[in-house]
Structures are given as structure tokens and as C-alpha cells.
Write a structure and sequence with these properties.
Layout lengths: L6 H12 L9 H25 L5 H17 L4 H8 L3 H21 L2 H10 L1 H4 L3 E9 L10 H16 L5 H8 L10 E5 L7 H7 L11 E3 L2 E11 L9 H21 L25
Antiparallel strand pairs: 1-2, 1-4, 3-4
Helix pairs in contact: 1-2, 2-5, 2-11, 3-5, 6-11
């Protein structure tokens, strides 16, 4: 819709996502595509808000910018120092403020008690404090592989999963033979994890979708491609009132995707190929130009 996403913006978000981690070279394009998909979803939601008359106004953005300047001044800093530290210009900052104002308005409008309670009921195990005992197999790029190929790793993981399900090899033996994780010597056993850590979000989200004994489809994280098995569940009993923030966080993700999907019917998204991206409507990487 004529709203460009610049590589510098995607690179900033990627840096935030990875933090100090170094992504496996084969997994990096998928992580980059996920970052771009998130930015595009936000652009679509902003377009939805403009169409529905709920977008942040220039006056609201000016006011937020002025308030930020006052807070920075009170802390002995300045807007210029803040922009330099964040590698932003004022146009970038105004876009960020527009997003925060608009998203807060939309989210509060859609955040109802009924919807929160329904979300808790649908995602009880992820929210009630239950721990999972999991094992995994991690496939990574071979040293010296050039170019790294995430598609090949995904194919290997899918084939290995099929062999395990067919009984040709046990999960434990496959982990010992093929996993690049230090847990390979323990047949892939990671032990218990929580919904809020210590594993990265993509891993944990996939693990908590499994029932005991189930093996996930290939899962991409910055470390490579995983097959995850849920070995056991340690139930907990947190109530709805105990996890309100987690419910809100989950609903925020759900609402973002819903509104972006609605707006996509009215918008056009194009790609230059300068940054890895998924084929439209899929999580499959598009060929890079």
C-alpha cells in the first residue's frame, strides 16, 4: 500500500529478537522472515485502524513526542541522544509512537472479560504453571557448508521424524546419532521447562502444543531446526486471576494476527527480495533474488 519497510528497521528488530545470541546460518533467513512478517502485520493493523478511524492522530503523536522529550530532559538526557542511542531518526520514532498509541486503543477496545476467560480456558496448560519434561533433536548447519540451506535441514528433520514414527529408529537413538545439542549424550533429554523459559519462545510454544509422547513438526529457532518430544506434564493449578498479564499477552498476539488478516483483504503487500520473506499465506521461505 505504498508504506515501505526499510531493511534498517528490520535489522533493528532482528537485533532485538536475537539479543546476544548468534543464529545458526541456516536458521537466520527464517528468523529474518519472521521479523519481516511481524513488521508487516503491524503495518496492516495500522492500515486497519486508519480505515476504521482509530489510528493515532498527528496531534496525539506530537503530544507523545513532547512528553518523551520532557521525561528525557528530566533524566538529564535529550531527544537527540535518545535517537542516536536507538539508531533512529525522528520519522522512525514517530512511527513507533503511532504504533503504540494505535495498538493500545485497539487492544483495549477488544480486550473483554469474556474473551480473556475464553482464552484462559483454551490455553489452560500453557497458562496454569504446568511444567513439561521434553527431549529434542537439534539439526544445525555442518561446518563449512556453503551456502547454509534451511530447506535441507527442514527436509532432514521431517524425514527423521517420519522414521521415528515408523519405528525405524527410536527418538533416543536418533538424538544420539544426529543431534548437535549437548543433550545428544543424554538421548536428547532436556528435562523440565516452563512456559516462560528457559527455552526460546518458538521452541516453548511448539512444546506446549504437544501431548505426552507426541513429536513436533520441525521447529526453527536461532539455534537450528528441532524435533521436540513431550515426555511428561507436571500439572499446576494457577487460576485465571493469577495469570492476567499472560492472558493479555497471548490475546495481543491473537488480535494482531486477526486484524492483520482482516486488513489484508483490503491491502496489497509486495516484496523486493532484498530481505528474506515467506511465500504469501505460508511459513515457507520464498526464493531469494
Amino acid at each position: 500500500d505504498g508504506q515501505p519497510v526499510y531493511a534498517a528497521e528490520a535489522q533493528r528488530v532482528l537485533k532485538q529478537v536475537l539479543g546476544p545470541q548468534q543464529a545458526d546460518p541456516a536458521a537466520l533467513p527464517v528468523i529474518q522472515a519472521q521479523v519481516l512478517a511481524e513488521i508487516i502485520n503491524r503495518r496492516l493493523v495500522l492500515a486497519y485502524a486508519r480505515r476504521s478511524g482509530e489510528a493515532a492522530t498527528a496531534a496525539e503523536i506530537d503530544s507523545a513526542l513532547n512528553e518523551l522529550g520532557k521525561r528525557l530532559q528530566a533524566a538529564g538526557s535529550s531527544l537527540k541522544e535518545y535517537l542516536d542511542a536507538q539508531s533512529l531518526d525522528e520519522a522512525d520514532l514517530r512511527r513507533q509512537l503511532a504504533w503504540r498509541i494505535t495498538w493500545n486503543r485497539l487492544f483495549r477496545k477488544h480486550l473483554t472479560q469474556q474473551r480473556m476467560e475464553e482464552y484462559f480456558a483454551q490455553h489452560r496448560r500453557q497458562l496454569d504453571g504446568s511444567d513439561l519434561c521434553v527431549s529434542h533433536i537439534l539439526l544445525t548447519t555442518k561446518p563449512g557448508a556453503n551456502p547454509p540451506d534451511i530447506g535441507e535441514l527442514m527436509k532432514q528433520a521431517a524425514q527423521l521424524r517420519a522414521e521415528i514414527l515408523a519405528g525405524k529408529v527410536s527418538f533416543e537413538e536418533a538424538a544420539r546419532r544426529y543431534s548437535s545439542s549437548p543433550t545428544a549424550r543424554d538421548a536428547g533429554r532436556l528435562g523440565y521447562i516452563r512456559r516462560d523459559g528457559p527455552m526460546v519462545e518458538a521452541f516453548t510454544r511448539a512444546a506446549y502444543a504437544l501431548q505426552p509422547g507426541e513429536i513436533s513438526q520441525p521447529v526453527v529457532t536461532p539455534f537450528g531446526v528441532h524435533l521436540i518430544r513431550c515426555d511428561a506434564v507436571k500439572p499446576a493449578d494457577k487460576k485465571f486471576a493469577d495469570v492476567l498479564q499472560q492472558v493479555e499477552d497471548g490475546l495481543a498476539r491473537q488480535l494482531l494476527e486477526e486484524l492483520a488478516a482482516q486488513q489484508l483483504q483490503h491491502s496489497t503487500v509486495g516484496y523486493t527480495g532484498a530481505w528474506p520473506h515467506f511465500k504469501p499465506g505460508t511459513t515457507e521461505l520464498a526464493p531469494q533474488k
